[in-house]
């Protein structure tokens, strides 16, 4: 297990992303997001749209050998999202750098 997880089970990056240990010494960057999809039923080998919608949690797991690599991917995803204006971009940049400082001080990984 990665040394960063001796005192906690996960590192929460934001409401959608977290880093958790894997069974070896690597880490998993986990993305969770609530989504809505149209309910489909199968009848006689055909898929039929019901017109009803249901909530589900979309999950994506990316495996990395080091926390720094997982965090680099997370930072690139956050910085590449649609930025409406320069203030939004600066705000996201500051949040990422604050998180880097927090992880660096707590886990000495970078």
What key attributes describe this structure?
110 residues, 32% helix, alpha+beta, 39% strand, flat, 4-stranded antiparallel beta sheet
Kindly summarize this structure in a few lines.
By secondary structure, the protein is an alpha+beta fold. Helix content is 32%, strand content 39%.
Beta fraction of the residues? 35-45%
Q: Which secondary-structure class do the elements indicate? A: alpha+beta
Q: Helix segment count?
A: 2
Give the N-terminus to C-terminus distance in angstroms: 18 Å
Q: What is the H/E order? A: EEEEHH
- Which sheet architecture does the biggest sheet show? 4 strands, antiparallel
What are the low-pLDDT stretches, counting only 5+ consecutive residues below 50?
Answer: none
- The portion of residues assigned to helices is 25-40%
What is the topology, as strand order, of the major beta sheet? Answer: 1-2-3-4
User: What number of structural domains do the residues give?
Assistant: 1
Radius of gyration, Cα only, in angstroms?
18 Å
How much is the average pLDDT?
Answer: 80
- Number of beta strands: 4
* Overall geometry: flat
3D structure, described in words:
The chain has 110 residues and is of the alpha+beta class. The chain has one domain. Helix content is 32%, strand content 39%. The chain is built from 2 helices and 4 strands. It has helices at 67-79, 86-107; strands at residues 11-12, 17-21, 27-43, 46-64. It has a 4-stranded antiparallel sheet with strand order 1-2-3-4. A hairpin with a 5-residue loop joins strand 2 and strand 3. Helix 1 packs antiparallel against helix 2 (86-107). The longest helix has 22 residues, at 86-107.
